[in-house]
Structure formats: structure tokens, C-alpha cells
Amino acid sequence: MWKEYLNATTIDKVLQALSERGERARIVAGATDLILELERGVRQGIETLIDVTRIPGLDAITIDADNLIHLGPLVTHNHCVESRLIRARAYPLARAAWEVGAPQIRNRGTIAGNLITASPANDTITPLMALAASVTLQSRRGTRTVALRDFYTGVRKTVMQPDEMLVDISFPAMESSTRGTFLKLALRRAQAISIIDVAVILDLQAGSVKSASIALGAVAPTIIRAPAAETYLVGKPLTDDALEEAARLTMNACQPIDDIRGSAAYRREMVRVCTLRGLRSVRDGREQAGMPVAPILLWGEQDGESGIRTAHRSPSAPIETTINGKKYTFKSGHNKTLLRLLREEANLIGTKEGCAEGECGACTVFLDGKAVMACLVPAPRAHEAEIITVEGLAHLESGGLPPTSQEQAPALQRLHPVQEAFIERGAVQCGYCTPGFLMSAAKLLEEKSNPTRNEIEQAITGNLCRCTGYYKIVEAIDSAAARTVQTQSNQ
Predict the structure, then answer these.
(1) Looking at residues 32-59, what average pLDDT do you find?
(2) Are the C-beta atoms of residues 145 and 159 closer than 8 Å to each other?
(3) What's the CATH fold of domain 4-53+306-388?
(4) DSSP code for 296
(5) Run of H or E residues at 459
(6) Which residue, among 491, 385, 373, has the nearest Cα to 443 in the 3D structure?
(7) For 402-421, how does the pLDDT look when each residue is reduced to its tens digit (9 = 90+)?
(8) Measured between alpha carbons, how far is 453 from 459 in angstroms, rounded to an integer?
(9) pLDDT tens per residue, range 323-335
């Protein structure tokens, strides 16, 4: 899919590579969109991928003296979900980030990547547009800051130049008088593209609206605002009549199309309905209803950030990695995904390929401590990384490494609690999806030793079972959790 892969260590090295290669190069962060585009042939002429995921300090979320929140280019969706600052001062963004994909996708996909992909259905663009965000672009020619409203020129088109890197996203933090929310309408609860989405932010003072911001996604070639509705609300108390009129004006601002997910007429009506729901929730103080206080992240007890010692260029240099505690060196497979590297080069066939599009979760593995979809990770990202596959779950139970002596061998045979529970509870049907479920469940129990049923369901939103075995699967995970709690209490 690509000829050259660079694991970069500094922004300067990234900018140099972009300057030298121009349109033949693309930056890789989460790669959850780019891998699919390359495999489907949507992106032509890309020869070099520049991986920035191990450059230190690019995943920070900060607030400055001017009350501007800054997101680094490696801030993922789950970073925003987990951030207390974002949840308190930019809640619509936290809600939108939580609505994206599943935990495995949110652990890799970055907010910057979501903006750059520039699909009008990308969830996090909508709240950032409502928050009046700007992006900072850097190249060897200099640095410029562009308002997000001016960043897009059409469907999947931006003003970004081939030699530029997005290095910062900034926006004003919401004040104490300001409240907002994000609503998404999709065809299923998780892993679904928006039919429409709406971000609503209101500054409420003395019982009326001082200012309003309403942004809409998936209803025009780019994310748009609803200026007529925003102007109408200013100075008005939030009566039912005022909210209904604002929702109608918002509906009139959109220009949706007919497609497989919904007709234009349906989208227009749902814009009105969802805007009205959002306005009412803000008025009634229920804008955070339905958002978990502590969402499931599937990144365990630590954030799992991994550095890299020196810049690494594939295929001229082998991929040196650790899988299930064992060192591997790969001299081939550089232009594959991590999934195919594991299966075809390492001969670890427990990790399954169900869809190769990040939809089914059968390929879930742990990459530097976080659950990810291996089909959406470039193989060279494995260089100097720590990877756990389903074959390594027993290793986790026996201390994290394979046995080094015969005396340790019996411990290796002890299955992970989720493996035992899946057997005992009959949670395995055809078995194809089972490795992915086991990995998600194991990471869940690392994160929450005694999860609720809702938290179990959150953890497996990225895993599909075509045999409809969810009841037994949930039951098995619950049983494994109970066993883990009991074991801990006996120690």
C-alpha cells in the first residue's frame, strides 16, 4: 500500500520529510481513515507514510492564560472523553468524541485526523465549529493559524498544503454561564456514521440568551452554522415557543442530500427534532444526560504511551517488536497492516480478520497497553512497541511474560478468567469473533474489576458477533469479573 514508512521522533523531521516528498507523503497518527482510503484506492500516489505517534508532548490538552484550550495533534478521541478539562469547559466536544466509533477506534483516532479528513459527517468537527475553533498549520515555510470555518473548501477538501502539519487546535473554553451539548442521529448505537448531528451552545444570563452557537453536521458539503437561529435566540427567554422557532430556523439552514442512510427530507426533519431536543436539554439542565461519568476507554490502568529511541525507516530497516513477551524481528511485511503482520509474518493466527475495516473487532489486540483494531494499524507502528494478542492472555494471567523455565510452565497453562468464563458459560458459538471479545473483556477487567452491565456493553461496542451470542458473552464477562473480584478478596 505504501513504499516507505517513517517513524519520526521530532516535528522538524516530519516537516523535512513533507517538504521533500510533497503530495507523495501523508502523516499518520491514528490512521483509522487513511488505511481504509489506501486499501480502497481512494488515495492515489501516496508512497510515504510519516508516523508521528511517538513524538513526545503532542498528546497534551491544556488551557492558557487567555482561557484558550489547546489540543495537541496526537490528542485522541478517548483523551477528550477522559479529560476533566474538556468535560467541564468543552462538554459538546467530549460528548462528540464519545459518540465516535468504539473504544478501540477512539484509542487510535485523533481529533486532528478527524478534522483533516474533512468529511461533513465527522462528529468532532461539529462541536469544534460551534466552539469557534482554529487550527495551527506548520511547514518549513512558516506557521499560520486558520479559523475552522475557513479551513474547509468542500467535501473532504481543506486549505491545508501538502507540506503542512496540523500542530495545534485551539478554542475558547466555555464560561460558567455557558452550557452546551451534542446530539447524533445514527442507524445504531455505536460504530455508525452520523445521519445528522447537532452541537448547541448557549450563554445564558439573567434568564435569557446572551449568545447562541448552533452547528450542523452531515447536512451540507461542509459542517455549517445556523446563523438565523443563533440571531433569533439572542435576548430571548427559553420558552417552548422560542425553542421551536429556533429549531425550525436551524432546519432551514441545512442542505442535506439523499443517500443510503436517509433521505434529504428525513434529515431536515431530524435536524429540527434534534436541535429542539438539544435546546430543551440545555434549558432544563439535562445536557449531559446519557453520558457516562467514567466511560470505558479500554486502555487499562495506564495510558500506554510509547516512545521511540531513534527515527526508523521501513523497509530499509527491519521491524523489531515484542509480541506476548517475545522479541520478533521482521524483515518483510512492512507494507501490511498490523493484523496481517501478526497472521502472515508472526504466524499468530488467533487474531482474526472479519471485515478489515475496523467494524467487527475480531482483530482487537493491545498496542502499548491500549485496545486497538489491528486491521487499521500500519505494521511498521509495531517497531519498538509492546503487543499482546489473544495468544498472550494466559501470559497476562501468569505474570505478563512467557515461562523461562520448566518450573514456570504449569502457570502458563492457566487461562485468563475471561477465557475460562467463555468456556463455562457457552459464550463461544462459531468462535470467529471470540478472540476480539476476549481481548476487549480482558482490558475491561484491567480497567474496571467489577464493571456494571452497562460498562460491559460499552466495552464490547466495537465487537460484532454474527451468531447473536451477546447474552452469553455479557454473562461470561460478568462471571469473569465476579471471579476476579473474589480472587482479589481472597489474596
Answers:
(1) 92
(2) no
(3) Ubiquitin-like (UB roll) (3.10.20)
(4) -
(5) helix 453-459
(6) 373
(7) 544 444 444 445 899 999 99
(8) 10
(9) 999 999 999 999 9
- In this structure, what DSSP letter does residue 435 have? H
Q: What is the pLDDT of residues 425-459, one digit of tens each?
A: 999 999 999 999 999 999 999 999 999 999 999 99
Amino acid at 193: I
SS3 388: strand
Q: Residue 207: which pLDDT band, with cuts at 50, 70 and 90?
A: confident
Give the type of residue at 62. T
Residues in the chain: 491
Round to whole Å and give the CA distance between 450 and 481.
Answer: 6
| Alpha-carbon span 337 to 333, nearest angstrom | 8
| Phi, psi (rounded to 5 degrees) for 181 | -155, 175
Q: Parse the chain into domains and list their residue ranges.
A: 4-53+306-388, 61-283, 411-490
Q: End-to-end CA distance of the chain, in Å?
A: 50
Give the mean pLDDT of 202-220: 96
Looking at residue 290, its amino acid is: G
Cell 446519557 found at: 290
Nearest to 367 by CA among 1, 11, 6, 31: 31
Cell triple for residue 26? 501523508
Cell numbers 468462535 label which residue?
A: 431
The conformation of residue 124, written as its DSSP 8-state character, comes to T
Protein fold of 61-283: 3.30.465
Q: Evaluate whether 211 touches 183 at the Cβ level (below 8 Å).
A: no
Of residues 483 and 383, more confidently modeled = 383
Looking at domain 411-490, its CATH superfamily turns out to be: [2Fe-2S]-binding domain (1.10.150.120)
- Mean pLDDT, the chain, integer: 93
Gap between the Cα atoms of 361 and 152, Å rounded: 32
pLDDT of residue 396: 72
